[in-house]
Automatic annotation (TrEMBL):
PROSITE patterns: CHAP
Membership in a protein family: In the C-terminal section; belongs to the glutathionylspermidine synthase preATP-grasp family.
Matching SUPFAM superfamilies: Cysteine proteinases (SSF54001), Glutathione synthetase ATP-binding domain-like (SSF56059), PreATP-grasp domain (SSF52440)
Listed name of the protein: Bifunctional glutathionylspermidine amidase/synthase
UniProt-listed Gene3D superfamilies: 3.30.1490.330, endopeptidase domain like (from Nostoc punctiforme)
Pfam families tied to this protein: CHAP (PF05257), GSP_synth (PF03738)
Amino acid sequence: MKSRVPVSQFGELLGYAPGNVAVYSSDYDTADETIYPNRSAYRSYLDGIYMGYKWQCVEFARRWMYLNHGYIFDDVAMAYDIFELRSVRDINNQTRLPLQAFRNGAKHHPVVGSLLIWEEGGEFEETGHVAVVVEVHQDKIRLAEQNVAHQLWPQDQQWCRELKAKVTKEGDYWIECSYSDATILGWMTQTEYSEFSEPTPEINTDLFAIKAQYATDYGQATKSWLNIANDDEAAYVEMMQGHKLTSVNADQHHYFTISKTAQQTIEHATNELHGLFMHATDYVLQHPELLKKFNLPDAVLNKIRQSWDNRLNQLITSRFDFALTPAGLKVYEYNCDSASCYMESGKVQGKWAKHFGVKTGIDAGHDLFKDLVRAWRKSEVNGLVHILQDDEPEEHYHALFMKEAIEAAGFECKVIIGLTDLHWDAAGNIVDADGEKLSYVWKTWSWETALDQIRLECEADQSQSDDFEPHWQSGKTPRLVDVLLRKNVMVFEPLWTLIPSNKAILPVLWSLFPNHPFLLNTAFDLNDELLQTGYVVKPIVGRCGANIQLVDEQQHVIEKTTGHFASQEQIYQQLFALPKVADYFVQICSFTAAGKYAGAGVRVDKSMIINGHSDCMALRISDDSYF
């Protein structure tokens, strides 16, 4: 049972673990805004090394390791992911030391300094938990930890919690969890001794192959299968000029499958990479010399920082673009500010499979819609949501699909096409044609569209160059920038998504996490390593695959596209080509909801570069045995 001892204020010292490592209260409800004025203030660094988020369990475990032993474990998306790690990094010499995982009940007992790991669920819903073992006995084990209780420790006591333990006749060491709805996975120990340890998670990368499949043709393509009584499906059918998932008539029966192992790897990568991109975003905002490389108007930099400080956890959805091949899984970029492909993956591909009689595996996007609904319920919305879109068919069905999710979350929603139906009222509020105030907005436009307006206005009015503020005039129609940067309008996705969506983040990521298995070597300047592997030239701000060049190791341009972003600064990313499956190059797209994996789909093209005209096809997840 939880203690009734008074809770200490966030950041208050609770006690000291062995090695004189401080333990702090993480009661976030009591955090002092004068001490923790923004999100960056919650990031814990020691000797310039990122420890974690103040004052969570992972932060303490990493800090304890570093102060006592000089090594740390790698960044993880959730505490339970620590159980999958198999090495720690020695900070002094940058070498790797073995980290062994022992399942609860193992014959290799925990030792002082072992990390006790809980599975996600129950008391530790979504995240799991980690604590440091500070005493080991035959009948009990004592722990030091953060973010469970927030009470002061007894004086001179170096532990905060005690769990019952039992050793069997066979020598198995079992630890009882004090929470009936939580599960202890086991413990992690830095040791060469591997007997009785969990095997290193080795993935058979042959399971990363993508298979092309064909649904038996019974004439299904000649029949209607989307319900045009639903507004989003009617808009989709109108845009596609028929009931079809792909624009190529000959491909109506084609689809792709990946293995369960591949899907699990994509899910893990999505969750982990989201955390890495968030870390890199904070790093960029703390380093002005890097921020300059993102080519953002000075007039909005303060607003981006404010958005990051105030709205870090208010992301509804985003999309990663991956290459999946037997050579590995690699991320190309993070579309944190994009509405593309959600309806195709979250609704249409599932209905396609049902109509075409596909029984192989399960729909890779079957949870996306319900996860979007959950993300909206967790948002800080409290009233009518307006969706803003251009008068474009693709934007329209995406807007209507999101409207359905917003309404399923319990909010009223309106779709506004263009801005002509909006105007300023006498109090300086933006209102719609019915006089209802815009307070919460989800948009299909990218933030970069608004930045173009800001750049032009700042060039004409130098007084705006340091801190842009939209002007207003009662009765007049606002511009896009007036809506999106209005202080009393909460926009989804937040302004800070400009940073992780900008390809300038990719070299920063590589510098922070070199040789990370899901990242590609990327630099602001062409170097010898990239010349040897081949490279891709990308504009730091671009859309729909425009102005991209693929260059092989012989320095031959093997593919390129044109577009409107030729004047942008460029980055250089290691060449890691999409797999060609049957007649198409296939890109995996994974989607997040509230920062967590929510589903997947594919985009395909005869070209090696996925672009705005590339098609979606159905993606199914099959058992490994199928491969």
